[in-house]
C-alpha cells in the first residue's frame, strides 16, 4: 500500500508543495480572499485536467522521456524543440525561485547565530543542493514524503501556538482600499503564482515509472496528489494572513517573528527550508534528465547546465520572488500546458469516435485560451 499509493502521492504532493506556497499569503493580501478562492477553483480544476491528460499520455509513451521527449514523440520535431525551450527556461526559473526563497530562509535561520549576509547563505543552499543533484540520490521520494509530513506538522504547530492571535479581520474579501471591490492593477497577479504552486506535470513521468505494474492507480494518484496541496495552501493562507495581516511579507515565514517569538519561527523556518530544498533537488534532477535523456547531452554537462544558469541569474540581480514565479507559472508552464493539450488532442483523435473523445475535444480550445491569455498578461506584468 505504501509503495503503490502513499509514496507516489507524497512524492508528487511534496514536489508540488514547494516555493510557491510562500507567495500565496502576500498575494491574497494584495488581491483579496474572494478572487484568490476563485483562482484556486478555476486553476485547480485546470491543473487536475492537465495532470490527468499528461498521465494518460505517460501510459502510452515510451519510458525515460520527459516533456520534450513526449512532445517530439506526439507532435514531431517542432513540438519537441518548443517543449525543450519551454521546459529548460521554466526549469531554470523554478530553480531560481527556490534559490531566492531558500537563501532567505537559511539566512533567517542561521544569521542571528553565525552572522553573514544573504549571498553567503544562498550560495551555501545552492552548493549543497547542487551536490545532491549531481549524485541523483534515489532516496529523494522518501525524503519528499518526510518533508511533506514535517511541513504539515510545522503548520499545525504554528496554528496551536497562534490560534488565539489569529484575527478574522485580516481576511478581506477584496483588497484594502478598493471601493468597487475590484482592483484592476492586481486582479491578475495570482494567475502565474497559483499555477506555479499547483503544477506537478513535470514529475508525472517519474510517478508513472515508480508505479511499475500498478499503472491503473495513476489517475487516482494524480487527483489526490493535486488536491492535497490545495488544502495545505488554503490552510497556510489562513494561518499566515490571520497572524501577520498587512505585515505579511513576500516569503511569508520571515514576517512571523514579531508575532510568535523565536522558538516557533525557528521551527517554521526549518520545515519551510526542508520543504523548499527537497523540491529544489527534485526539479534539478528533472531538468538534468531533460538535458540528459531528451537532448542527449552528457550527464556531467547536464548537471553543470542545470545548476549554473540559475546561480548566474541570481548573481546578476534577478531576485524578485513574486515576479519570477509569476513569469515561470504564467509563461513557461502556460506553454507546457498548451503542448500537453495539443498532444492529448492528437492522441484522442487517433482513438475510436465516442462520447469521451468528443467531450475532450470540446474542452481543448477553451483550456488553451486560458493559457494564451495568461502568457500575454505575465509577459506584460514582468516587463512593466
Question: What can you see in these coordinates?
Answer:
It is globular and about 60 Å long. It has one domain: Amino acid/polyamine transporter I (Up-down Bundle). It has helices at 2-16, 24-31, 33-60, 67-75, 77-114, 118-135, 140-162, 190-198, 204-210, 218-244, 257-260, 262-294, 299-315, 321-349, 355-383. The protein is built from 15 helices and no strands. By secondary structure, the protein is mainly α. The N and C termini lie far apart (50 Å).
What CATH architecture label applies?
A: Up-down Bundle
Q: Could you tell me the CATH topology label.
A: Amino acid/polyamine transporter I
Oligomeric state: single chain
Which structural class matches the secondary elements? mainly alpha
What characteristic shape results from the CA principal axes?
globular
Distance between the termini: 50 Å
Average pLDDT, all residues: 86
Rg from Cα:
20 Å
Question: Which short descriptors sum up this protein?
Answer:
384 residues; single chain; mainly alpha; Amino acid/polyamine transporter I; globular; 15 helices; 77% helix
Quick structural summary:
This protein is mostly helical and 384 residues long. It is built from 15 helices and no strands.
Amino acid at each position: 500500500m505504501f509503495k503503490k499509493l502513499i509514496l507516489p502521492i507524497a512524492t508528487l504532493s511534496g514536489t508540488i508543495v514547494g516555493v510557491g506556497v510562500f507567495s500565496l499569503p502576500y498575494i491574497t493580501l494584495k488581491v483579496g480572499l474572494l478572487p484568490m478562492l476563485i483562482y484556486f477553483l478555476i486553476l485547480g480544476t485546470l491543473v487536475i485536467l492537465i495532470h490527468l491528460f499528461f498521465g494518460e499520455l505517460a501510459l502510452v509513451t515510451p519510458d525515460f522521456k520527459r516533456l520534450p521527449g513526449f512532445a517530439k514523440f506526439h507532435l514531431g520535431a517542432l513540438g519537441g524543440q518548443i517543449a525543450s525551450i519551454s521546459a529548460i527556461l521554466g526549469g531554470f526559473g523554478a530553480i531560481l525561485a527556490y534559490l531566492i526563497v531558500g537563501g532567505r530562509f537559511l539566512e533567517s535561520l542561521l544569521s542571528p547565530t553565525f552572522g553573514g549576509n544573504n549571498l553567503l547563505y544562498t550560495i551555501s543552499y545552492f552548493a549543497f543542493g547542487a551536490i545532491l543533484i549531481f549524485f541523483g540520490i534515489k532516496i529523494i521520494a522518501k525524503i519528499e514524503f518526510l518533508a511533506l509530513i514535517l511541513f504539515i506538522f510545522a503548520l499545525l504547530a504554528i496554528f496551536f501556538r497562534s490560534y488565539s492571535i489569529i484575527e478574522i479581520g485580516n481576511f478581506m474579501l477584496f483588497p484594502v482600499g478598493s471601493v468597487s471591490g475590484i482592483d484592476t492593477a492586481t486582479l491578475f497577479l495570482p494567475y502565474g503564482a497559483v499555477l506555479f504552486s499547483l503544477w506537478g506535470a513535470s514529475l508525472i513521468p517519474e510517478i508513472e515509472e515508480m508505479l511499475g505494474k500498478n499503472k491503473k492507480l495513476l489517475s487516482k494518484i494524480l487527483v489526490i496528489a493535486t488536491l492535497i496541496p490545495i488544502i495545505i495552501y488554503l490552510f497556510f493562507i489562513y494561518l499566515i494572513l490571520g497572524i501577520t495581516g498587512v505585515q505579511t511579507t513576500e516569503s511569508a515565514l520571515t514576517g512571523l517573528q514579531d508575532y510568535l517569538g523565536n522558538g516557533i519561527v525557528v521551527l517554521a523556518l526549518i520545515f519551510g527550508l526542508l520543504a523548499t530544498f527537497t523540491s529544489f533537488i527534485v526539479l534539478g534532477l528533472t531538468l538534468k534528465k531533460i538535458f540528459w535523456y531528451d537532448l542527449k547531452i552528457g550527464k556531467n554537462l547536464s548537471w553543470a547546465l542545470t545548476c549554473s544558469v540559475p546561480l548566474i541569474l541570481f548573481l546578476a540581480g534577478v531576485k524578485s520572488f513574486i515576479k519570477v514565479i509569476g513569469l515561470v507559472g504564467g509563461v513557461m508552464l502556460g506553454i507546457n500546458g498548451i503542448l500537453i493539450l495539443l498532444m492529448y488532442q492528437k492522441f484522442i483523435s487517433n482513438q475510436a469516435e465516442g462520447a469521451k473523445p468528443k467531450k475532450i475535444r470540446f474542452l481543448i480550445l477553451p483550456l488553451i485560451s486560458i493559457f494564451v491569455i495568461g502568457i500575454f498578461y505575465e509577459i506584460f506584468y514582468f516587463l512593466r
